[in-house]
Amino acid sequence: MKQILLGVLASMFFAVTFILNRSMELTGGSWIWSSSLRFFFMVPFLLIIVLFRKNLKQLITEMRQNIFKWIFWSFFAFVLFYAPITYAAAFGPGWLVSGTWQLTIVTGTLLVPLFYEQIKTADGYIKVRYKIPFKAMSISSIILVGVVLIQWQHATSITTTMLLAGVAPVVLAAFAYPLGNRKMMELCGGRLDTFQRVLGMTIASLPFWILLSVYGMINVGPPSTSQVSQTFIVAISSGVIATTLFFMATDGVRKDQGKLAAVEATQSAQIFFVVFGEVLLLSTPLPSGLAIIGLFIIILGMLAHSLLAKKMSNKAALIKEKVSRKA
């Protein structure tokens, strides 16, 4: 339950990304600076936190041992996640990008067979691949229906260009983010805390952001003062606070695929914050009709995930108790 609450809180801070990215695009800002500046701003804040906690040396040691894997999976988790999202903001409103992003609640579950756990046997350790948690996936699919209903009232305003440029990149991001995050959890194996992992992944992704910013400087020129300030807000709210909260939540349930799916499903709450945030800040119309039904379906879906996670936790505790009694 704690991890689910952390996930919902993370979604609130992460919603700032979709609102401000759209705002920056509407005022002439380039997606190149919206994406790269966020990660440049994240580094000093995360570095201060890790230095204060006195565990930077451990992070450096871990990164040196698997530097290429760090770079590769950080590219998936951060670059292939955030660059497509900021690019999509240039072609569609925040509700469209945020709504499409909710595919992560299903894609994360579909990626489960790519991972395995090591089980100790009499002959040593064997690798057993995880299976798709169909109960969790069915609930996630119901939440996705709610997201679609919210989007429905805007469907008539979507052009072909919006659909291709505003949706396709986000679909790519929806697969890349959970894949990169899960692979990094697997690589770290619980040896690093959340702040260390986020800082390490941010540093590992910097070469790509530097190349993108050089390209931006040549082709679109430097960012405006307004874009720099708004990107700074995104970096703190979404990059530092939201990412840290979400990684804390996923780290806490990394060995339980059903609970991990439940935590990832909490990101559907972003649609609430984005829709109402755009109403307040960008004067978009309030949701009505089917959209209201969709909101209720999402709420029910997240509650169902919470109940399922609690049931699974109680079941695991009973099994553990029985095993200890027999021992």
From TrEMBL:
Domain of life: Bacteria
Entry keyword annotation includes Secreted: no
Keywords: Membrane, Transmembrane, Transmembrane helix
Record flagged with keyword Membrane: yes
Chain segments annotated as transmembrane: 31-50, 70-89, 95-116, 136-152, 158-177, 198-218, 230-249, 261-282, 288-308
InterPro entries associated with the record: EmrE (IPR032713)
Record's protein name: Multidrug resistance efflux transporter family protein
